[in-house]
Amino acid sequence: MAMANANAGAFGLEDVPDLPEAPTEQPKYNRDYHRLFVKFMSWLHKRTYTKAARFQPSALAGIQPHHVADYLKWRAYGTTDVDFKDLEQNPTCRSSTLEQDKKAISFYMPIKGATWNGTSGNPTKSDPVNEVVKEVKKAETQHRGKKSCATRDLTETEYRKVVHELYGKGSFESTIRTACMLKQQVHLITRTDDISKLKYSDYKPHPDFPFALSCKVHWSKNISEERQCPDQIILGSMDTDFCAMLGLANYMEASFNYGYGAAGREDAFLFTPESDPKLAPKHCNAAYRNILKAVFLSAPFLAVALLIAGVLGSHSIRKFAATLARGMGATADEVDIRGRWKARLSGRVVDAYISPEQPWIDARVAEKLCMGAPIAYKLHPDAKRVTPDWLIEHVVPRTHAFYDGVNDISLHLALPLLWAALDESWEERMEPPVRVRIQDAYERIKADLPVGINPLVKVPLSIWTHNTKLHINEIEPMDTGGGGGTAGGTTGTTGQASTRQVANQSRQVTAMQTQQQVRTNEEILTRIIAQHNQLQQLIAQEGRTRDSSAAALRGWLETWLGAELTKLNGNICRIAVQPPRMATPDQVDGNLFRNGLTVERTRRNGQTSLRYRQAVATTPADSRPAKLAKYRTVGSAWQEWMHGIGGNKPAKNFTAEDIRACKSTYSRRKPLWTLMATLVNAQKAPAWVISKIEEHYKGSVLNITAAIKQDTIMGSLHEDLCIVRAQ
User: How far apart, in Å, are the Cα atoms of 279 and each of 223, 282, 290, 641, 721?
Assistant: First the structure.
């Protein structure tokens, strides 16, 4: 066992426990984290561990947060004595490096999930460690320290330059194979290792649309269960630099000439002739990345790339695909689904119930990645001699023989491959034997079409959804009177016309059709926008009408409620100031009983005598505490006098004993209480009294009470606060 058994105290780390001689627990191991953790342990124990070293969990229990924090300081600044306020001390590594070290150390901790609580837990989840990472990030924002090495995304211009440079490399692996991998990576928004692990069996005909394929990416880094690997649609693109269908057709038919697919349809990797399940994808990925790196460092590419700051790498391609889809109008959640990032969301419970297979969203993002427009390759109406049997025999014989009728995609790939073989721009992008074979076979049956007319038509597609079902319709080319379709069928051409002239006429017709379609679409869009604006105006008008009605009703209710409250306050005030009435003997008896007394009447010699006794049943006295609260408003003073505050007894019910307990405060507040009670008894509403006092007296309640006491003594109260007695 390559583990240290020496006492850690020998290295000046007395709080780090000795490594046990006889391990009793299975040590943890992670290939990605072990190298970083060995480096941390070597620094901690001041000795060098080899990569074969293993560390028992019980031996790691003594690691404290300050050990991890000091190590991160040493990694970033080269010393543990760091003053973060000193701007002269600049970090020599990025915060992402420290976060990776922190993650590696956290993996090996005995208590991994718990935050450090001062005595136990995960030391990497503590304030000292987080503070170091935070300060390094702050230094990065201030442009101090090491510059970022993160790769940026490609631009569209750079992507096209990569494609053109690849087709000029020469060898099959450097041109056709790498270009196909690049187009598949962009169309599926994958990593380079995902593409390297694709197999021939991962592609199959789409069950609903005969012009499309479906592909299942099994090896994505973010996929943790099988249900997160839905079938994804593959569409053709009007722009050949982005056409995944064309790139796949061009590559697959030629790949069998180089020994690809020898392992059989189910087990053969698509982009490597090797069959080892572990080494083959790794070697393919390394070769793919090396070719891309060579292109990124080539002089023609640097002439374009140096205009934009940032580092480029193989990951830049996936960033380019995600950014392109987002820029073309797809939402971030839609890009998540196409790129299989959905498992990286918040982990909400509802995510377990939402199916990851979203055909409409997947097709919508695929449409955004098809520059120009998504298309279907269709045979020209006049190309009657180009039959499925002819395509299998002369265009994709090797592909058809390989699939042998099981999920055969040969006919799907035959149409784009035939288009490329008969197009001048693809003369340098195809394998010469394949191109010559197709052209020779077509020369014998091309009498149905004029010279120079491609028998394949690129038909644009319209992708939409209704009731959660995906619909893809072909947009038929408009009739401009010249005949032909998008593929370039034209009338009036003669047998002596050159291929270039016919192609130019075809492009002119296509341009006219496109312009007409654009004008039609603009007219439709204008009508839609006008109807939308009219609908918005109706909604706004209805909202204003509804708001005005609600405001009128609210005003009426406030007026009615105010009148009723005024009437109620007036009645209460009149009852309060009514003069006392002579009570009847029964009322006297009732009042006496309520005061705890009973009366006995005796009549002797014609005279009535009364005798009072303590009642058997008495009403209990107010047992609430007699305390005066603290407050800042005149309204609270009235509340305290009438009802009490905070569960205390009303001040008006204080007994002599209660008053003596708080004599000073009670005496100071009494003038305010007396004035308010007097005005309320004179049929003034409490709210009116409070407003008048606050109107004529300013300051705290204590100052207001002192001023009222002074004005009462001097007879200088405001007339609103005086009661006029009837003469």
Answer: 21, 5, 16, 90, 99
Rounded Cα distance, 641 and 128, in Å: 57
Strands of 203-205's sheet in order across = 203-205, 213-215, 232-234
Chain centroid to Cα 641, Å, comes to 57
H/E stretch holding 460: strand 456-466
Any idea what DSSP says for residue 623?
-
Sign of the torsion formed by the C-alpha atoms of 133, 138, 141 and 145? negative
Residue 167 phi, psi (nearest 5): -70, -10
Neighbours of 269 (CB within 10 A): 22
Q: Which residues of the chain have pLDDT under 70?
A: 1-25, 219-228, 263, 342-348, 350-351, 447, 477-519, 522, 574, 576-621, 724-727
Residue 116 per-residue DSSP state? P
| Cα–Cα distance measured from residue 713 to residue 705, given in angstroms and rounded to the nearest whole number | 13
pLDDT at res. 448: 72
Structure tokens at 351: 């995510």
Helices (H), 120-177: 127-141, 156-166
Could you say which DSSP state residue 269 is in? B
Structure tokens at 546: 């509804």
Dihedral of the alpha carbons of 571, 577, 582, 584, in degrees to the nearest 10: 40
Tokens 């592609």 appear where? 203
- Can you say how many angstroms the Cα of residue 466 is from the centroid of all Cα atoms in its chain? 26
Whether 45 and 18 have beta carbons less than 8 Å apart is answered as no
CB 268 within 8 A of CB 260: yes
| Rounded distance between C-alpha atoms, residue 253 and residue 242, angstroms | 19
Burial level of 112, CB count in 10 A (0-12/13-18/19+)?
A: middle
Q: How many whole angstroms separate alpha carbon 631 and alpha carbon 636? A: 6
Q: What is the pLDDT of residues 608-658, one digit of tens each?
A: 565 555 544 444 567 788 888 888 888 888 888 888 888 888 988 888 888
Task: State the residue for tokens 């309204």.
Answer: 635
Which H or E element spans position 469? Answer: strand 469-474
Predicted pLDDT of residue 485: 40
C-alpha–C-alpha distance, residues 381 and 575, integer Å: 102
Alpha-helical runs (H) found in 79-208: 95-108, 127-141, 156-166, 178-188, 192-196
612 phi and psi angles, rounded to 5 deg: -100, 135
**628 vs 702: CA distance, rounded Å:** 14
The 10 Å CB-count burial string (b at 16+, else e) for 688-699 is ebbebbeebbee
Check residue 377 and report its DSSP letter. E
pLDDT tens-digit series, residues 105-125: 999 888 888 888 888 889 999
DSSP state letter for 457: E
Residue 122, SS3?
strand
78 beta partners:
none
Strand pairing partners for 600? 611
> Quick one: DSSP state of residue 454?
-
d(CA 696, CA 681): 20
The structure tokens 């395509």 sit at 391
Tokens in use for 220?
């994505």
**pTM of the model as a whole:** 0.58
User: What whole-number distance in Å separates Cα of residue 498 and Cα of residue 399?
Assistant: 34
Give the C-alpha separation, 446 to 493, whole Å. 15
Helix (H) or strand (E) holding 51: none
* Beta-bridge partners for 727: none
Q: What share of the chain is helix, strand, coil (3-state, %, to 5)?
A: 50, 10, 40
What per-residue string of b and e applies to 385-408 under the rule 16 or more CB within 10 Å gives b? ebeeebbbebbbbbbbebbeeeeb
